[in-house]
Amino acid sequence: MSSFRNLDDLGDDLGDLTGKVALVRVDLNLPMQDGAVTDDTRVRAAMPTILELADKGAKVLLLAHFGRPKGARNSEQSLSMVVGAVQDVLGREVMFVPEVAGEIVAQAVGILGPGDIAILENTRFWPGEEKNDPELARAIAANGDFYVNDAFSAAHRAHATTEGLAHLLPAYAGRSMQAELEALDKALGKPERPVAAVVGGAKVSSKLDVLKHLVSLVDHLIIGGGMANTFLAARGVDVGKSLCEYDLAATVEQILDAADKAGCTVHLPYDVVVAKEFAANPASLRICNVHEVAADEMILDVGPQATEALADVLKTCRTLVWNGPMGAFETEPFDTATVALARTAAALTREGSLVSVAGGGDTVAALNHAGVAGDFSYISTAGGAFLEWMEGRELPGVVALQR
Ligand code: ADP
Ligand code: MG
Questions:
Q1: pLDDT digits (tens, 9 = 90+) for 186-196
Q2: Is 3.40.50.1260 the CATH number for 191-390?
Q3: Neighbours of ion ligand 2 (CB under 5 A)
Q4: Nearest Cα residue to 359 out of 66, 156, 216
Q5: Pocket residue to mutate for ligand 1, from 198, 362, 368, most atoms within 8 A of Cβ
């Protein structure tokens, strides 16, 4: 039995669901262009939960936020815009209700039959959502019989519809939330050792807390991307014009000390790919030792020798957690190290010798670019929540679902 309540508990707790009203928090913060949804991944993620509840006869009310309307109604951020996309994915008719609480929602519930689905308005139109105002949560709860949270991506926020509602109604993790929690637990909760973490990308200062936590959990910490430049600079390496946060040198030393004490091996690149200008296949491109970077050069990728050594490290590991690309992968050939390491991890996962979990907006894009996202054991599309989980923080939306 898992440590949090999920949809398998519904029958025991509530009996027959026919006609019962489910308030279901999902992620409908869909990317849009010119009023059209450009990617429906998040709807597809929520589909199993929505259809399972509908097929059990519940009236399904979907709660979600869209953008950052800052507590005021505006027509550009109405969730009415995603109704078509949700209908297309579900293959069912979906009603739109322009409120989240009160008489209008009560009337909608009266109209809906068992198994029907409705989307309520953007929860962030109400200031009480982000303040986790108990009054708003009570007003929303008044129209429901039970609450399901299927939005892991919003679980790091204690808002009325991500946390507050869980205290007012019987509360359950939806299927996608459950899959995410189980995969994450497998990767860092009680992982098979040795464990490797790859941390790269550009948002160095915001990821240092992740590193502080990881060194006590993992056997190998592989550092790439802009993150590696900051580490190299802190160690006295001249990184030229590279993306680098020099003022973090003291923090880097603390992390390296903590890693040393915890028996975690930190891997920094010893060869790198550099260029004088940031462009595709620039004339100034060359590969060199980290100690040979010129003052007018930028490190844009991990070098081939280091990449090969890192692949060998992965081959000795049983578990991998990955956030952040190894180089500026959007521009060729600075995708080389990221693609190579991603393909190694994918092959090891296919062979069954590695459990691989990756997350982060650009990381997922990089794995798609390498053509291996489908081979990883689990890909988390929840950027902020995934990073907070990697930091070892308790996510309020998850804590509220615990037994
Ligand atoms: P994620 O979204 O997966 O958490 P980040 O947002 O932290 O990852 O970082 C991704 C960005 O880091 C990418 O746009 C990539 O181009 C950039 N990047 C990686 N390595 C370098 C580098 N050496 N120099 C400059 N940018 C880099
Ligand atoms: Mg990013």
A1: 887 888 999 99
A2: yes
A3: 361-362
A4: 156
A5: 362
